[in-house]
Amino acid sequence: MNVKNDIKVIINNKQYTISGYESEEYLQKIALFLNSRYAALAKEDGYKHLDEKHKNLMLQINLADEYYKMVEKKEDLEKEIEERNKEIFELKHELISKKEEERGKKRK
Fold first, then answer.
1. Hey, how many other C-beta atoms are within 10 angstroms of the C-beta on 65?
2. What is the pLDDT of residue 26?
3. CB-based contacts of 35: which residues, under 8 Å, 6+ apart?
4. Digitized pLDDT (tens) for each residue of the chain, 108 residues in all
5. Domain ranges across the chain
6. 14 near 35, Cβ under 8 Å?
7. 21 and 30 in contact (C-beta within 8 Å)?
């Protein structure tokens, strides 16, 4: 059974304790990811003029945007895999048919 981890992390220059059943390394990775997103937003011109509430909202909007783009990309890749699997199936079927056809010619 997994053990729940409680670790202290710093996100956007504030210390938090986060908990989860994932490893401490994974939870630190999440904090690092969030910090990288805050840092990227901080480079935007208008971001520094926003209050804390709107800065957090901007981060949430950007994360949601990134999430939905990744979901769309995943779905596109799944469709591509499905199409390739169908193509492989058809090619295998064609190959088997050709081999059977050749065996039939050799028997005659």
1. 10
2. 95
3. 10, 11, 12
4. 588 999 999 999 999 999 999 999 999 999 999 999 999 999 998 898 999 999 999 999 999 999 999 999 999 999 999 999 999 999 999 999 999 888 888 776
5. 1-43, 45-108
6. no
7. no
Structure tokens at 67: 């999430």
pTM: 0.73
Cα separation of 69 and 66, whole Å? 5
Q: Reduced to 3 states, what is the DSSP secondary structure of residue 77? A: helix
Question: Treating both helix axes as pointing N-terminal to C-terminal, what angle do 52-107 and 24-42 enclose, rounded to 10 degrees?
Answer: 120
SS3 5: strand
Element (H, E) at 10: strand 5-11
